[in-house]
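Predict both folds.
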Amino acid sequence: MNQPTPTRDDALTLLKTYNQSESLIKHALAVEGVMRFMARKYGEDEEVWGVVGLIHDLDYEQFPDQHCKKTEAILRENNWPEDLIRAVVSHGWGICSDVEPTTDMEKVLFAIDELTGLVATSALVRPTKSVMDMKAKSVKKKWKDKRFAAGVDRSIIQKGADMLGVELGDLITDTIMGMREVSDAIGLKGDA
């Protein structure tokens, strides 16, 4: 029996049950925005990709040492469909999960999770503090400075781009475009 896809409201309620950190919620909204953008680009179900993006770090605030594992358990308790649980767990591949991303949705989530952080940090040091006027070139310039956003694992982003068979610049552009759609909610609309 197939479980129905949880609604965005279901996902947001669950996310806020386990996360109070404004920065983690903004990150979840950024990843959701990019996942929705990418779903349209790939001709996939925007709602499904969106809820996966929204919920992907469900356990991170309360259970950082059990990241992905605790989310898997929570989603099962809440009767989430297995393919969505697998997609969420796969974003931690090689870090905290041995579930390799195989579908387009899983590969995109893996690739853009860290990248949204680099894009957001890059936007915040711009005069406009915005993604609205940002180009991939600005992020690529920051990419080279390993001290900038040092917590962002660039090798994961590159591995994700390689899995998707896309150029890094194109992935950055798509991530920026997705984040523009939610720029107000994530605090990156700025003055632009």
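Second protein follows, with its predicted structure tokens after the sequence.
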Amino acid sequence: MLAILGLAYTWYFNIQFYLTETDTSINNFIALTKTTLPAQSIVADLTVVVITFLVWMIYESIQLKIKYWWIIIPLTFLVAIAFSLPLFLYIRANRLENIKAQSLSGS
């Protein structure tokens, strides 16, 4: 549910950008994030969050042998961290449940 909320909430504003701006290039999108100090603060905050998440996600994926973990990396940048983080947590929880079930069944 949180991944869906993260997708809808962030992309609502992305769609508004594309509907209201005359220059919808990625360069203009990035330039607009630097227009105010609060916007720059949020970008700095999210940059640290994304880097931290990706480092942890890669480590955790390798440790837990999660298949197709690498797809989370482009989704983080193409959709939003608000989508990819909850999605990875869901995938991770499923993997942990499978590991637990396998250990209980003795396989």
